[in-house]
């Protein structure tokens, strides 16, 4: 590949700190976001901002995407693929369906480009700290090339084989997280109902064998009943449904789908996924 010309598309909760870490590592980076105001933290740090996806395609040969869902990814790639993508590498770090990621791979490779899926496990703090887990799949030479960047974004990356396997691994780990978070909500509410306050119960959880970085990270939100988004609940609602579409068919998955949808109906989608506690409280602990 010629000299890499990097562009990062998607500057939300995750994309902004990830792009900043690439800049801090010394890579020259351009950025694009449909809401142009979100490019300011990156341009302040030295990035160049493009104003259209045509500019991105014409001036980049390594293009990262970190977008919200299938619809956003489909829309962005529809524009990117309107022109020549020959010899360009697309590194899609969004969490999307395996069906879409496979289709993008086929379409890009048919046009002479390269496609690597690389969804990440981790929320905003690991994104800021550069300690994400990167779940990559696609052509192995593309993965080997991309590790130069992955080393600055995560504590490790893992190569999972053909396109689609990264998406499936990401849905599996996110489903596990949905169960852990909902179970933590039930635990705290059950304890509170029986006279044990939230702070005490979370101390017990965190000091027990059940304690984890996740439980410790969520403790302030639980105690204060305040849920600034590290991982927006709406994304977990989406991921549970994607996991079911991939064949997850259990009573627990159906229960998770239902309670996260109730949280969505309660307008908690933009809050952190720990806000599912409020939906659990409304449904079971009135």
Automatic annotation (TrEMBL):
Keyword NAD appears in the UniProt entry = yes
Outline the extent of the 6-phosphogluconate dehydrogenase NADP-binding domain: 6-161
Q: Name one Pfam family in it.
A: NAD_binding_2
Q: Name one GO biological process term.
A: organic acid catabolic process
Q: Which domain of life is it from?
A: Bacteria
Ordered alphabetically, the record's keywords are: NAD, Oxidoreductase
> Single GO molecular-function term?
NAD binding
The catalytic residues are 170
Any idea where the 3-hydroxyisobutyrate dehydrogenase-like NAD-binding domain is?
A: 164-279
Q: Which organism is it from?
A: Dysgonomonas alginatilytica
Q: What PROSITE patterns has UniProt attached to this entry?
A: 3_HYDROXYISOBUT_DH
In Swiss-Prot or TrEMBL terms, this protein is called: 3-hydroxyisobutyrate dehydrogenase
Keyword Oxidoreductase included in the entry's annotation: yes
Chain segments annotated as coiled-coil in the UniProt record: none
